[in-house]
Amino acid sequence: MATVEKTKSVEKQKSDVVLNYFRPRKKLPTVWCAGCGNGIVMSALIRAIDKLGYSKDEVAMVSGIGCTSRMPIYLDFSALHTTHGRALAFATGIKFAKPHMKVIVITGDGDCLAIGGNHFIHACRRNIDITAILINNHIYGMTGGQGSPTTPSGSISTTTPYGNVEKNFDPCKLAEAAGASFVARGTVYHTPQLEKAITKALDHNGFSLVEVISNCHTYYGRLNRRGDAVSMLNAFKENSVTTAKAKKLSPEEMEGKFLIGTLHEDDRTEFCDEYQKVVDAHMGEK
Amino acid sequence: MVDTQRTLLLGNLAAVEGAIYAGMRFYAGYPITPSTEVAEGCSRELPKIGGRFIQMEDEISSIGAVVGASVSGMKAMTATSGPGFSLMQENIGYAYITETPCVVINVQRGGPSTGLPTKVSQSDTMQARWGPHGDYTAIVVAPSTVGDTVTETIRAFNLSERFRTPVVVLMDEIIGHQRELISLPKPGEHQVINRVKATVPPEEFQPFRLTANGVSPMAAYGEGYRTISTGLTHDPMGFTTNEPKEIKVKLDKLRNKIMDFRSEITKLRVEMMDDAEIAFVSYGSVSRAVLLAVALARSAGVKVGLVQLYTVWPFPDNKLRDYCQKCHKIIVPELNMGQIVHEIRRVMPPDTEIHSLQRYDGEILTPMQILEKLEEVM
Ligand SMILES: Cc1ncc(C[n+]2csc(CCOP(=O)(O)OP(=O)(O)O)c2C)c(N)n1
Ligand code: SF4
Ligand SMILES: [Mg+2]
Questions:
Q1: Hey, which of A33, A40, A107, A135 would you mutate to test ligand 2's pocket, going by the most ligand atoms within 8 Å of its Cβ?
Q2: What is the pTM of this model?
Q3: Domains and CATH numbers, chain B
Q4: Could you write out the DSSP letters of every residue in B188-254?
């Protein structure tokens, strides 16, 4: 009984933390469907920010367009809800203008990898100190379930009614190849791990990507007979393998599974730091 | 920066000088002829004054970064030409609806598409006004000389800060690539306007509050206000809305904050119009050839004058009507298939004869061609 009480109060404390970060005067509920993974990611992100002790004023949250991209509207940080695919470009302007700010980009798989793909690889290449949280639900949620660059081959969407004939991106590999200095993947099932991954990413100086495998049960789930939110979350649990565990598995055993955890980390120089050196060297010259 | 005040300066670099004078400390852009020297100049000059230059991956991201820098409190600009200007339109629209001050320089070249990268044109006159989709009102200024480019760029920043809106500087290849001996303005010679900052306590602040002059004070990121900017139509708090009443208030605000102050924004140069019976109306580099033609015609006794638009948009309806009151004929020379001429037709009494003089083969209109047109309509 006592333990039950204790868990309850811990739970209460935890959710209170989240409530502290909602934007005052903004009406709820959110636009999200009940059970959408976006809410889980939002709460993990808030906990990570809270744990790191950032002041609300030093955080800027930038997003594009999509269900996912609505997140900054609800939170009590400076928020720039931009155009479809362009969040990283706007975020680059904020970070470069005010390098002391913690700039976080919230983006969807369509937003980040289709229309925004060019900005994504160049933000990685510059290694500018921005944290991108890419909520990958394998579909265009907001516009009603069209195929995205991460829709798996063979999957059904409203624009791939006979099965997707295209190949899908692995955003983590793409980010690493393009020069991002921190890359991690999590899921909306593994929330404590997700919170940790986001904390690490935020704390990292350089471009960091956290890809979060998430559920759009409303479209991806329904069109592909994956059941409700809960059964999709359970599938994420079944199909994911931590980087540590993956070392012990054969390629056959890894078939159909995906990796979670920190996938890449290095200490390349960061863009704003490097530019500051140029300013320091030339300041005051005629 | 050049150390003497009197200097031989390229038009595109005059834009850099004007911008820096006005307080611009952030530039994001993508190279494109004939605007590239603006980017090159900024990459050289900005680090020396603690500013920031970034070459982005395209023009879409360039204007995006500019908006990001502006909401962070910096005066920011980008420069481009035809194809790049087309790419920027969605995010310029974002700057209109989020009421974010910034300056976009368009050094016009021929189009459509890749068109004529190294040749002059004024065919973006209408695009500069109507480029982004949706309803809004645009401010567009246009220099005609290298010297003008300095002052018009300063004015563009002042207008953009004053009215919390993007301002387009419509240059063209001739002005951008011309070198002229000019005097750079001394500190204090021109007024420099800065946006009105938020002063009320954060819990009372409304980033898009309707004020008497329509312009809402602005809070920079990181200064305690934690505002929201969204490209979705929004209420005074910045919260998205689908309420017809609130939608109308927002769109009216975008228009009225500019149109109610039109006389403050419009700027014309008027030459030899006192007794003119025929007027030329032009803007940009064409005005220089017109001025010469007018002087030549005057020496032959023809009563002709020039009205030059330094502000192209909003169009100076009343001022133009006043100056051209006594003119029964107006000639509108343009380096395009006839764009601004439609505005003059709209504004002038129906009995005014309006003649369009067009050139769109990548070459300039010469004073001789302008005189020929004058003779033809006389
Ligand atoms: C320029 C432009 N093209 C298309 C759209 C329409 N649109 C809005 S959201 C969206 C897709 C969003 O998908 P994703 O980024 O995966 O976000 P999700 O809704 O799944 O979270 C599209 C195509 C738009 N808003 N702007
Ligand atoms: S449509 Fe999909 S992504 Fe959008 S809120 Fe609903 S479940 Fe989430
Ligand atoms: Mg998606």
A1: A33
A2: 0.96
A3: 6-183 (3.40.50.970), 267-377 (3.40.50.920)
A4: TSS----PPBP-S-GGG--TT---TTSPPPB--TTSS---EEESS-B-TTS-B---HHHHHHHHHHH
